[in-house]
């Protein structure tokens, strides 16, 4: 299990990275934390001719938390984002969800943006980006930057809107708005594994503490994390009187899981319902407290 | 035509080292086969077992999921570098032996590196924090019970050492 | 014998090098060796039409490429069938490189040697093999239909078929006894595939010395002596020209007892041919698809019993999946069939098994070696009987126990060593009462009720087993005291983490009366000890432990003889303590073992001060006697062997409390209790460690690990990402209690402990989940998804 040979590039800034990516497209791959890419290379399931290592581009190693939200640079490691108090204050779901991503040692290397571009439907961060309605900023040589909304970013299993030659420079996670709560629930076979099923939830209340909006995004139950709006199912009621089991059932009916070696589609659907109920209740509770 | 080699400098266990590696050389292979530090083990080469864990600027990382070129210029600590400056065993190493936290010893270097960083950041972890802290390292021999015990014991030893100084 | 060190939780002597990175595992050796890699079959069943290696020749750094055609006689022959058995009528083994047909994904087809492993893999990837697909046979169910065949000349895919039958005391056959019983149950049980999965894979490193025509092979093996014989035979070398060394081994658990692996023949052969050092270190994917698996069985049970739950007749039919080849014979199903009986006296027993070929990785022993399946069968049967009669599960077991006064107890079967299955000692009722106490069996129903009131589901389960350990034929030990007073112990069997260096040192130090730190132990190095069998079947402590004790006693006797002469005392008045031989009661009259060692070897040349004392003019010597008397040998050393008449039987009982989540169907083990009886404990710390590790592997097998093949014979989870070996987060704290019923069969009174922990775990967890859920569990492992589906299938 050794990677096949590639030409290694280590740009020092974004401009240089974009140039190399442009010159090598479509045969170049970005190397960020390597925690998803290198296993694939070691198993020779991927064999790009060029690897563009962005680990020496300090301008990508940023976490900017502000009133609007958190902008996470392409080199910000899971662990750094998880540890960042300002990021957690602006959008607590980041820290909550990151604790479910792999193990601490993997989080020391893996990047949030890498996780998004990798677009594994079993990964946590794509669901978080989707449920929050965030976006990914892509750049290409000579082409400037474009922000792709989460709903359009994930195009299929392990497929994102990032095109060959493009670099994802950052991702944006909108801030928590007032009277809003978030939650993340998942079941994994082993602690730290990719989820068998998982649900990220965001619930907002109006001034009368009625559900103004409720959204979830589900992990491992479809080709990509899709935003599911269940505001209507909540019927504009106060959190305490919402029929959460039936809302959760609505969620479980709208996902599209498949069978695999770890779980049947039926179980995943059921589990999504269970987790949706748990996550929505917690999120609604937090919204009421917040 | 041979592969392009990259000159790299690493500080490994405090010692500056230079070597030439192809871009694809995994840090684990570089340490083991280029630098002769075979204490770092390789059990899966896909990031799951944790045998290859080393400290990169003090933080535990998987050396099998890191290219040697990527860490050019950085500091690395492997199990060979865990002894105290005076050459005695570190509290973590002592605790592992005292608590019978190893059998075949293949996973042990990865655990030692992980736990060394864990206790540096959290000198007196709870049971749950210990288990979470070592949750990315597989051991096929011990059933982990004595490893958990060893982490607590190491924390105790470190406390004692500090109390004395 | 002083018992100072024997029985003490002495800290391990192997630890220092292992915690400082100074251990030497296979791939730590041979820095400059060439690397081997293999082209392995991507298909489960196919005929090789052609192999085009030309692509590989482009690779800079390529040294050699070999296919079966390139192999010379001997090397090219099928690998040996290690354990033939009359019932194994259709044993088949693989060629070291596939000849015409590949029979499982992962079978080696082409060997590549290159400057390093990266380049070897580059070359391997460029080799094209043209395959003609054959229909793969996957799964026991499909295989027994015999429509498609794994081996053309094995009809019905049946490799072996064996029936053993023990009639009731009244002479009734088991089927008759079942039919005549007041209660009869019939059911089917399933166990899936798993594997040893040591964290270090296999590996071989060979050095050919062309000058003195000798071969040195390092292998990550559980038997270096036997690898040596196999390699010498295959390569046509005189045995003395081959040495095999097992360096530090990163776990074995059974898979590394198989030998010679194709690589163990090919790597040394290539090293000889090329005149270069060659090394192969298996990677994780190779380990999944090219080593060995175990466990998969389908069992059909019929049991007849009386109102107290006493088993009057038991009739079991087992279908055992042994994969594509049978290099290790049918040891695994034989063990299942015989050890199934556990601690019970069964009225009449009939067991029949068929060992079946499938197009999957071969099956050879994995820790427990067939016992987990046997125990699963028997213990699930006990639970069914209890449920049927409405009796407490422990009461049914107690009603069937062999009683302490009944030993030696002959089960009337032939065990895996070809010898009668006679239990030597044990106290099962006492074990059970200790276990009930430890887990709180009697109080559990209240706890369960309380939890239920909170909407939580708890369940409790238990399982009992008896484990034949320390199987023969023999092991040996060599003990030498050198003139510096150090004691050098060696034995041929190998170590993979069991702490042999410590345990054997404890035995030798105790027997010889020397401090532990003066003793060093070498295992698994044929340069030091050439006769051995290997490390498996929980036999090391029993076999080598006793052999070393016997060898040490020889040395002790000789030391006392020599010391008696020097001290002009009666040897019977002498004792050895702290490395000094003393006349009891006369502290002045003493001589150190070091000096005794000097005196034991009459010298002509003095190479140091001590040695002077043994030279010709040193002291008063009898001029009428030769310096080395008839029957004596120079040196203070001894060699002895231990060869038991039959195995010794350890036993144990485990219980667990689990909680199942009513919504997510997750299964959590809240408590896990073990009562263990392996006779006298040499080092309780190490025995505990073995139990912890065994239980953890058992938990893996019960809740997480399985080898999933699809219908094409592709192993779908050949990685640690998907083969779910548990982390610390998945393993419960294990509470242990020990009972010590010494074995009357060996001088030390010990029994084996290496495998015990893993044996009953699937049975225990199945029972506990069943108790929590009120749903019958007859298939393991069980995942949350499966529990969910079970709930749905049984929902009213
Ligand atoms: C044992 C283990 C367990 C894991 N468990 C989980 C888990 O439970 N949940 C989870 O979500 N993840 C898990 N991961 C994956 C981990 O989170 C990864 O870090 C993450 O998926 C990818 O981030 P990375 O920085 O390592 O990306 P890399 O591996 O470097 O790259 C991944 C892919 O994204 C591309 N890419 C990366 N960055 C950019 C960029 N800036 N622009 C364009 N393309 C880019 C790469 O070319 C590559 O195709 C696990 C990994 C391991 C080894
Ligand atoms: S070898 Fe790196 S994690 Fe297993
Ligand atoms: S001690 Fe063997 S794998 Fe941990």
Low-confidence stretches of chain B: none
What is the approximate shape of chain B? globular
Query: How many domains in all of chain C?
Result: 3
The most extensive interface between chains reads:
B-C, 58 and 59 residues
Helix proportion of residues of chain C, in percent? Answer: 25-40%
What structural class do the secondary elements of chain C suggest? alpha+beta
Kindly state the number of beta strands of chain B: 5
The helicity of chain B comes to 25-40%
At CATH level 2, the architecture of the largest domain in chain C is 2-Layer Sandwich
Determine Rg of chain C (CA atoms, Å).
28 Å
Main sheet summary of chain C: 7 strands, mixed
Global shape of chain C? globular
**How does CATH name the architecture of the largest domain in chain B?**
Roll
Strand order within the widest beta sheet of chain B: 2-1-5-3-4
Structure description:
The complex is a heterotrimer of chains A (290), B (165) and C (796). Chain A is of the alpha+beta class and 290 residues long. In chain A, 34% of the residues lie in helices and 27% in strands. Chain A has 3 domains: 7-52, 2-Layer Sandwich (Uridine Diphospho-n-acetylenolpyruvylglucosamine Reductase, domain 2), CATH 3.30.43; 63-174, Uridine Diphospho-n-acetylenolpyruvylglucosamine Reductase, domain 3; 180-288, Enolase-like, domain 1. In chain A, helix 11 crosses helix 12 (265-289). Helices cover 35% and strands 16% of the residues of chain B. Chain B has 2 domains: 5-81, Roll (Ubiquitin-like (UB roll)), CATH 3.10.20; 91-164, DNA polymerase, domain 1 (Orthogonal Bundle). Chain B has helices at 27-34, 91-98, 108-121, 127-133, 145-164, and strands spanning 5-12, 15-22, 53-56, 59-62, 75-77. Chain B is globular and about 50 Å long. In chain B, strand 3 and strand 4 (59-62) form a beta hairpin. Helix content of chain C is 27%, strand content 24%. With 796 residues, chain C is α+β, with helices and mostly antiparallel strands. The model of chain C has no long low-confidence stretch (mean pLDDT 94). Chains B and C meet through helix 2, helix 3 and helix 5 of B and helix 1 and helix 17 of C. The complex binds flavin-adenine dinucleotide and FE2/S2 (inorganic) cluster (2 copies).
């Amino acid at each position: 299990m050794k990677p096949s040979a590639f030409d290694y590039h280590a740009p020092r800034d974004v401009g240089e990275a974009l140039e190399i990516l442009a010159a090598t497209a479509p045969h170049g791959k970005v190397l960020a934390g390597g925690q998803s890419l290198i296993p694939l290379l070691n198993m020779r399931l991927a064999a790009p001719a060029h690897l563009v290592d962005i680990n020496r581009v300090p301008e990508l190693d940023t976490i900017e938390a502000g009133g609007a939200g958190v902008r996470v640079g392409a080199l910000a490691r899971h662990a750094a984002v998880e540890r960042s108090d300002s990021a957690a204050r602006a959008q607590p779901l980041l820290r909550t969800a990151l604790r479910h991503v792999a193990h601490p040692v993997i989080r020391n290397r893996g990047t949030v943006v890498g996780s998004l571009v990798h677009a594994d439907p079993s990964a946590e961060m794509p669901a978080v980006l989707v449920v929050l309605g965030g976006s990914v900023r892509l750049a290409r040589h000579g082409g400037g930057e474009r922000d792709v909304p989460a709903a359009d970013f994930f195009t299929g299993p392990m497929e994102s809107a990032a095109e060959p030659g493009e670099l994802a420079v950052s991702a944006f996670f909108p801030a928590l708005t007032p009277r809003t709560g978030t939650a993340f629930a998942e079941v994994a076979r082993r602690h730290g594994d990719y989820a068998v099923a998982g649900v990220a939830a965001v619930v907002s209340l109006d001034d009368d503490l009625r559900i103004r909006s409720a959204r979830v995004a589900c992990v491992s139950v479809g080709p990509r994390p899709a935003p599911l709006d269940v505001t209507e199912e909540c019927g504009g009621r106060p959190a305490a009187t919402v029929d959460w089991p039936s809302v959760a059932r609505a969620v479980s009916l709208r996902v599209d899981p498949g069978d695999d070696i770890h779980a049947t589609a039926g179980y995943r659907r059921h589990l999504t319902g269970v987790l949706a109920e748990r996550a929505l209740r917690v999120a609604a509770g937090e919204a009421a407290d917040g | 035509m041979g592969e392009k080699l990259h000159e790299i400098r690493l500080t490994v266990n405090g010692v500056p080292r230079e070597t030439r590696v192809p871009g694809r050389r995994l840090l684990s292979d570089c340490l083991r086969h280029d630098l002769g530090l075979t204490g770092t083990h390789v059990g899966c080469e896909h990031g799951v077992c944790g045998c290859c864990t080393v400290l990169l600027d003090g933080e535990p990382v998987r050396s099998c999921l890191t290219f040697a070129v990527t860490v050019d210029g950085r500091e690395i600590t492997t199990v060979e570098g865990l002894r105290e400056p005076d050459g005695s065993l570190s509290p973590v190493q002592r605790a592992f032996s005292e608590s019978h936290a190893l059998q075949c010893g293949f996973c042990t270097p990865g655990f030692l590196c992980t736990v060394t960083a864990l206790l540096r950041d959290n000198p007196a972890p709870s049971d749950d924090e210990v288990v979470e802290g070592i949750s990315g390292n597989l051991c096929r021999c011990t059933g982990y019970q004595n490893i958990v015990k060893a982490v607590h014991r190491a924390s105790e030893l470190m406390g004692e050492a500090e109390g004395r100084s | 014998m002083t018992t100072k060190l024997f029985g003490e939780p002495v800290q391990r002597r192997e630890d220092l090098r292992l915690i400082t990175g100074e251990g030497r595992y296979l791939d730590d050796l041979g820095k400059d060796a060439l690397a081997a890699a293999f082209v392995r079959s991507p298909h489960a069943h196919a005929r090789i039409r052609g192999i085009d290696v030309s692509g590989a020749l482009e690779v800079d750094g390529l040294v050699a490429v070999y296919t079966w055609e390139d192999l010379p006689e001997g090397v090219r022959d099928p690998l040996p069938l290690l354990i033939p058995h009359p019932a194994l009528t259709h044993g088949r083994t693989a060629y070291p490189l596939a000849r015409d047909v590949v029979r499982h994904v992962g079978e080696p087809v082409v060997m590549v040697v290159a400057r390093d492993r990266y380049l070897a893999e580059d070359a391997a990837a460029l080799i094209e093999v043209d395959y003609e697909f054959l229909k793969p046979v996957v799964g026991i169910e499909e295989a027994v239909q015999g429509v498609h065949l794994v081996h053309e000349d094995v009809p019905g895919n049946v490799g072996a078929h064996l029936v053993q039958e023990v009639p009731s005391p009244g002479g009734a056959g088991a089927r008759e006894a079942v039919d005549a019983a007041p209660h009869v149950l019939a059911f089917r049980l399933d166990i899936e595939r798993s594997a040893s999965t040591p964290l270090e894979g296999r590996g071989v490193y060979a050095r050919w010395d062309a000058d003195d025509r000798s071969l040195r092979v390092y292998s990550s093996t559980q038997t270096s002596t036997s690898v040596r014989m196999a390699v010498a035979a295959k390569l046509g070398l005189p045995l003395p020209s081959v040495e095999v060394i097992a360096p530090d081994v990163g776990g074995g658990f059974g898979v590394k007892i198989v030998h010679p692996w194709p690589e163990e023949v090919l790597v040394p052969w290539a090293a000889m041919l090329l005149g270069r050092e060659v090394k192969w270190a298996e990677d994780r994917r190779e380990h999944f698809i090219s080593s060995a698996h175990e466990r998969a069985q389908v069992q059909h049970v019929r049991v007849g019993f009386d109102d107290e739950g006493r088993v009057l007749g038991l009739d079991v039919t087992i279908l055992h999946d042994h994969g594509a080849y049978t290099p290790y014979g049918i040891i695994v199903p034989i063990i299942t069939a015989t050890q199934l009986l556990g601690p019970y006296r069964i009225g009449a027993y009939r067991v029949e098994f068929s060992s079946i070929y499938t197009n999957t990785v071969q099956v050879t022993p994995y820790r427990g070696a067939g016992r987990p399946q046997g125990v699963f069968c028997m213990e699930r049967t006990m639970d069914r009987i209890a449920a049927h009669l409405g009796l407490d599960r422990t009461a049914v077991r107690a009603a069937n126990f062999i009683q302490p006064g009944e030993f030696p107890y002959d089960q009337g079967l032939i065990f895996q060593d070809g010898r009668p299955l006679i239990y030597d000692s044990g106290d099962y009722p006492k074990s059970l009462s200790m276990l009930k106490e430890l887990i709180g069996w009697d109080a559990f129903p209240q706890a369960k009720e309380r939890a239920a009131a909170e909407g939580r589901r708890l369940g409790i389960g238990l399982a009992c087993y008896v484990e034949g350990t320390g199987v023969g034929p023999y092991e040996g030990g060599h003990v030498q005291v050198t003139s510096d007073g150090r004691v050098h112990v060696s034995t041929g069997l190998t170590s993979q983490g069991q702490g042999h260096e410590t345990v054997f040192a404890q035995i030798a130090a105790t027997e010889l009366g020397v401090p532990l730190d003066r003793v060093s132990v070498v295992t698994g190095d044929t340069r030091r000890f050439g006769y051995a069998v290997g490390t498996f079947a929980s036999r090391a402590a029993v076999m080598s432990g006793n052999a070393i004790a016997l060898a040490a006693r020889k040395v002790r006797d000789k030391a006392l003889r020599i010391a008696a002469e020097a001290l002009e005392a009666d040897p019977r008045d002498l004792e050895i303590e702290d490395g000094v031989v003393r006349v009891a009661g006369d502290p002045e009259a003493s001589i150190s073992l070091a000096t005794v060692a000097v005196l034991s070897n009459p010298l002509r040349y003095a190479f140091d001060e001590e040695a002077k004392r043994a030279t010709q003019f040193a002291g008063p010597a009898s001029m009428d006697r030769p310096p080395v008397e008839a029957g004596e040998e120079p040196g203070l050393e001894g060699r002895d062997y231990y060869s038991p008449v039959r195995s010794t039987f350890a036993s144990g009982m485990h219980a667990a409390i689990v909680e199942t989540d009513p919504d997510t169907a997750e299964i959590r083990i809240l408590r896990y209790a073990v009562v263990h009886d392996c006779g006298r404990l040499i080092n309780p710390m190490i025995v505990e460690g073995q139990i912890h590790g065994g239980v953890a592997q058992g938990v893996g097998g019960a809740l997480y690990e399985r080898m999933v093949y699809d219908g094409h014979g592709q192993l779908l989870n050949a990685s640690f990402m998907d083969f779910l070996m548990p982390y610390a987060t998945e393993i419960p704290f294990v509470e242990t209690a020990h009972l010590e019923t010494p074995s009357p069969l060996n001088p030390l009174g010990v029994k084996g402990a290496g495998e015990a922990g893993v044996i009953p775990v699937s049975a225990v967890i199945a029972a506990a989940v069943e108790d929590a859920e009120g749903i019958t569990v007859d298939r393991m492992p069980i995942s949350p998804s499966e529990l969910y589906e079970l709930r749905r299938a049984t929902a009213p």
